[in-house]
Amino acid sequence: MTESAYNPGSEGARMSFADAMSYGDYLCLDGLLSQQKPLSGAHDEMLFIIQHQTSELWMKLAIHEMAAAREAMNAGRMPHVFKMLARVSRIFEQLNNAWDVLRTMTPADYTRFREALGPSSGFQSYQYRMIEYILGNRNPNMLKPHEHVPEVQAMLQAELARPSFYDDVIRLLFTTIDGPDAEIPAPQLGQPHQPVEAVQEKWTQVYQDVDRWWTLYELGEKLVDLEDYFRRWRFNHVTTVERVIGFKRGTGGTSGVQYLRRMLEVELFPELWHLRGGL
Ligand code: HEM
Ligand SMILES: N[C@@H](CC(=O)c1ccccc1NC=O)C(=O)O
């Protein structure tokens, strides 16, 4: 050590953690940083693993926020709901920006380790499916790949059996405007949300008099924001996939880019988009 090396310990920085909780202890970094296990010798496999692991961590936070937002909404704490939904949109923005790192991987780089992935695929991401299920895109066929992990399948199934976050929003929309006797459309349990005319009419009322229904309007716009970011994620994904594997079949067994293009047509909150043309 040179004389000139600055020692933060001299101004009080704690330098010994033999008997105290350190940064690594608190964040469980030993566990976290020992979970990157490339199966090939390919240089870019580490990028691929970390890209997916960080995505899963952000998805974990998104689910945490959406679960709390749902609770807050059902308890009438709308400012909290808005804060959490805004955070979920920012998480998607973060995931969208992350594609820039993955895009530095060329098709040749990926080919060096693609075979090592076997039949594994993002198609089997249960947190991704959970996000879709919470928001209302509920395809029960997507439960099947999780049959081998009963706890995971049960968790997804439990989500399918309850009203989605969007179902709860619809209930709030109707009761706020029509009061306790409102005729609320039944939640579409266990199936992808299909557009309902009465829901679009109700949202139209809100958008035609935003001053009167400001809180509902703000909620509607938060959902549109969220779906906007989600769509960008799907678009970035399919574009990256085409760039890296072209039109090859996916490791998960789907047609690949064609399958993902089909998913671009998914509408999470269709009524909120469709009402705009009629204003
Ligand atoms: C080079 C990078 C990537 C390629 C080539 C790729 C390829 C694919 C393909 C072909 C599918 C369709 C399913 C299949 O048959 O495998 C798919 C699905 C999926 N991928 Fe990726 N992917 C990449 C990166 C990512 C990243 C970074 C994530 C982030 C978690 C991700 C998450 C997903 C998810 C969630 C699905 C299911 C989508 C759905 O069912 O709507 N992928 N991917
Ligand atoms: N489906 C991809 C493989 C893939 O991307 C993947 C494989 C294992 C874990 C995560 C993945 N990411 C997204 O699908 C492919 O067909 O190349």
Your description of this structure?
This protein has 279 residues and is mainly alpha-helical. It has one domain: Methane Monooxygenase Hydroxylase, Chain G, domain 1, CATH 1.20.58. 59% of the residues lie in helices and 0% in strands. The protein has helices at residues 23-27, 29-32, 45-74, 78-102, 107-114, 126-135, 150-161, 165-178, 197-208, 214-245, 257-263, 270-274. Helix 3 (45-74) runs antiparallel to helix 4, helix 4 runs parallel beside helix 10 and helix 10 (214-245) packs antiparallel against helix 11 (257-263). The radius of gyration is 23 Å and the shape is globular. The chain starts with 22 loop residues before the first helix and ends in a 5-residue tail after the last helix. It binds protoporphyrin IX containing FE (HEM) and N'-Formylkynurenine. The site of protoporphyrin IX containing FE (HEM) has 24 residues, from helix 3, helix 10 and helix 11.
